[in-house]
Amino acid sequence: MKETKYHSYVVGELPEGCKLCVNGAKLVLFTTGICPRECFYCPLSPWRREDVSYANERPIKNVNDIIEEAKIQEALGAGVTGGDPLSRIDRTVKYIRTLKENFGKRFHIHLYTTGLLATKENLEKLYNAGLDEIRFHPDIFNPNSNIFQKEIENIKGAFDFEWDIGGEVPAVPGQEERIKWYAEFLDKQGAKFLNINELEFSETNLDALLSRGLRTVSDESSAIKGSLKSGLTILEWGEKNTSLNYHLCTAKLKDAIQLKNRLKRMAKNVARPYMEITQDGTLKFAVAEYENLMELYDLLVNDAKVPEEWLYLNLKKRRIEMPIEVAEELVDAIEGDVKFYVVEEYPTWDRIEVERIPLL
C-alpha cells in the first residue's frame, strides 16, 4: 500500500477511470436521480433525487449540452452516475453512444450501478454502446435482503463481457467485515479492483449518520471520524489476502485535487479577457451594480471613457463586469449609489460565487 500524490491510498494500480478523474479530465455525467435503493449514507442533494440529468453542473436538455460541456472541460472521459443510471437505461445508453461517436473510442467511460437493474439485457446494451468500465455498489450492509441477493447474481453476469469490472463502496466504520466479504467475492469472480470512499456528511444523510453514532473528524470537515482508518484497514488486509487493486479515495482528494483540476481545465476555456484565473481554477474580476444598468453603462463608456471591450453587460445577474484594475480607478470617480465589488466564481455552468469583496 502506498499514498498517492492525490492524498489517496492505493494497492496495485489506479483504475483507468480514476487516473483521469484525479486530473480533472472526467466529465461527471449524471443521467438520473432515480434509484431502486435508499442507502442511509447517500449524499445526493434533494434536487437531484428526481429524474433529472446533468453534465457536471449543466442541466441536460439535449445531447448537445453534453458535448458542449465535455469540450469546455477538455474531458478525456466520463463517469456515468446517479441515482442508478440503469434506472433510465435507454437514456444512459444514448448518452454513452453520443460521447463515443463525438470523441472516439479512446474517450474512457465508466459507470456506477447498484447492480439490482444489471440484467443481462441491460448489461449487453451498455457493452454495445461502448462502456469501458463498470463499478458495482451492491447493498453489502444488508446481506440478508432479497435485493442484495439479486444484485450479487447480476454482478456475476457482468463477467460475460470484456470490460473492466470493479466495486465501489463507502468505508463505513464498524462494517469492515462486510467490505472484506465483498472484496473476496469480487476477487473470486475475477474483478480488477475495489474502490473505497471515505464517508462524508451531507445535507441529506446527516440525520441518518448521526443516529448511528457517526461524527465528523472536526468542525471544519465533512469527513466521518473513523472512515479513513477503516479504509486503510481494508487496504492492508486486501493487499495480503486478495489479488485486487484497491483505491481509497479520500475527502481531501475530491475537494483539493479532483475539483480543482477540473475547474482549471474549464477556466481557460470560459474566462473572458477581463477575468483572472486563480491557482484554484476560479475566475476573479470586478463588477459594478446599479439600479439602472443601461444608464450606468452609458456613463462608463461616454463620461468615464472606459473602452467598451473592457466591459460586459450581464443582464442575467444585473451587473457590469470589468477588470479589477478598472474598477479600482472608477470607485472614487463615480458618484451616486454605484457599488463596486471584486468577485470570485467557479467557471462552471452555474457560476457559483465563492467570494465577494466590496471596493471602497
Automatic annotation (TrEMBL):
<protein>
    <submittedName>
        <fullName>Radical SAM protein</fullName>
    </submittedName>
</protein>
<feature type="domain" description="Radical SAM core">
    <location>
        <begin position="20"/>
        <end position="227"/>
    </location>
</feature>
<dbReference type="InterPro" id="IPR040087">
    <property type="entry name" value="MJ0021-like"/>
</dbReference>
<dbReference type="InterPro" id="IPR007197">
    <property type="entry name" value="rSAM"/>
</dbReference>
<dbReference type="GO" id="GO:0003824">
    <property type="term" value="F:catalytic activity"/>
</dbReference>
<dbReference type="InterPro" id="IPR058374">
    <property type="entry name" value="DUF8061"/>
</dbReference>
<dbReference type="Pfam" id="PF04055">
    <property type="entry name" value="Radical_SAM"/>
</dbReference>
<keyword id="KW-0408">Iron</keyword>
<dbReference type="InterPro" id="IPR058240">
    <property type="entry name" value="rSAM_sf"/>
</dbReference>
<keyword id="KW-0479">Metal-binding</keyword>
<dbReference type="Pfam" id="PF26257">
    <property type="entry name" value="DUF8061"/>
</dbReference>
<keyword id="KW-0411">Iron-sulfur</keyword>
<dbReference type="InterPro" id="IPR013785">
    <property type="entry name" value="Aldolase_TIM"/>
</dbReference>
<dbReference type="GO" id="GO:0051536">
    <property type="term" value="F:iron-sulfur cluster binding"/>
</dbReference>
<dbReference type="GO" id="GO:0046872">
    <property type="term" value="F:metal ion binding"/>
</dbReference>
<keyword id="KW-0949">S-adenosyl-L-methionine</keyword>
